[in-house]
Amino acid sequence: xxxxxxxxxxxxxxxxxxATIEEAVTGVMPHADExxxxxxxxxxxxxxxxxxxxxxxxxxxxxxxGDGIRKAIEVAQGDILVFIDAxxxxxxxxxxxxxxxxxxxxxxxxxxxxxxxxxxxLFGDVGKFIRSTGSSIITLSINYRWHVxxxxxxxxxxxxxxxxxxxxxxxxxxxxxxxxxxxxxxRQGFRISExxxxxxxxxAGESQIVVWKVAYRYVWCLIKNLxx
Length: 228
Prior knowledge:
Elements (H helix, E strand, L loop, with lengths): L7 E7 L6 H8 L5 E6 L6 H7 L3 E4 L5 H11 L4 E6 L9 H9 L5 E5 H4 L8 H21 L11 E4 H6 L9 H11 L4 E5 L14 H16 L2
Parallel strand pairs: 1-2, 1-4, 2-3, 5-7
Antiparallel strand pairs: 4-6, 5-6
């Protein structure tokens, strides 16, 4: 359980993660006052396993990860909300480092930066090269627009004050919500910082991001938020 007087909700985003959900839930529980599993209508035993471990399980609206993040923001009981995937690509023991700047009043949103902590998933083939290059271009655009020095705009491993999360009114349904969260926080004057976080190779299954199918949505999300 978190040691700060700020209550922490850790939201684990899932869809067909029965192979890893037990380790994900037990890993975050020592760092959470509330362990919340937001499930994207899994067809396996993900929800049943999470419930058996004592996690609170809710269904998203079926529209994608962004939809699930909004659901987590809606139902979270904590003052600080941490997002982590169920595929074990991030270390739950990094959660205190994400939470601390918010609990201490220094930040409103804290990103776990893979450019500072390293990644086993962003490099090694053409698809990963395209992803990492695209991510860098988006981050650079955000930095120039708001005069900040972020290194990672796409990593889903992050913490945000629940108050800020509810104030920014996000609309993206897929993974683009992560860059939308940053841009809307900056527009409304919320403070953003980063801490190093290593991204590990996922233990089971395949990434649900198919770059060529969604690239235009990342571009459109970036443009419409930059020009507002």
